[in-house]
Amino acid sequence: MAAPANSTTFSGDVWAEFRLADARDVPHLHSLIHQMVELEGITDIFPATEELLASTLFPSPARPPFTSFTALILDLSPFPVVQDSSSTIASRRLDLSASPLADPEAAAFASPRGGGRVTAGFVICFPNYSTFLSKPGLYVEDIFVRAAWRRRGLGRMMLSAVAGRAAELGMGRVEWCVLDWNKNAIDFYEAMGAVVLPQWLVCRLSGAALDKYKGNQEEAVDGKAAE
């Protein structure tokens, strides 16, 4: 099948780098999150903005990675990656000789790192805590790979790297949620050794339901919320 117009074709050796994101990655992060929301069919209630992402993920002063909200980016490069010990989490070489890959979004997702790189995915994670284990853990809020780069082992690479970092930090477990209709994702996670817990349900307060509790603590202190 012919490559789509304006696409970039990757063939031969391609190098993947999974690295810590910085503020330069915010536009791509926002676009990737929007693509993920499109898959879930909820773009009509998507409130995230580049400004919100920049202020919440990349505050000043910066926090050490994996001790707070941590954004990670997947870049693909037609040239060998020179690893940066301060930002590279994992890297690998892909051999596309037998199956060249056409990326119709390559220009839109040109990496801010330059060098012909394209951004293909991301992970957002942050620490949590298990009272049962009496250990911190890591919660993966999102893991996403653009359509052109799926089924190349890149999702496994990213999740493996995050799990490996959690293990190195002495954390007790890594957790995340998956939509119950996403059988491909469930099968992928189970193949990686994850246990899906159907007996647990997600409970959430957000929007107006959360806002109505503003000031509730002050009322309790004043004795106005005794029950």
Number of domains: 1
Largest sheet composition: 6 strands, mixed
Please, how many helices? 6
Structural class: alpha+beta
At CATH's second level, what is the architecture? 3-Layer(aba) Sandwich
Reading the helices and strands in chain order gives EEHHEEEEEHEHHH
Distance between the termini: 67 Å
Rg from Cα: 20 Å
Under CATH, the topology is which? Aminopeptidase
Write a short abstract of this structure.
Helices cover 26% and strands 25% of the residues. By secondary structure, the chain is of the alpha+beta class.
Give structural notes.
By secondary structure, the chain is an alpha+beta fold. It has one domain: Gcn5-related N-acetyltransferase (GNAT) (Aminopeptidase), CATH 3.40.630.30. The protein is 26% helix and 25% strand. It has 6 helices and 8 strands. The protein has helices at residues 26-40, 50-57, 154-168, 183-191, 207-211, 216-221, and strands at 8-10, 13-20, 70-77, 88-95, 101-103, 118-130, 135-145, 174-176. The strands form 2 sheets. The protein has a 6-stranded mixed β-sheet, with helices on both faces. It comes from Digitaria exilis. Residues 60-217 form the N-acetyltransferase domain. InterPro entries: Acyl_CoA_acyltransferase, Diverse_Substrate_AcTransf, GNAT_dom.
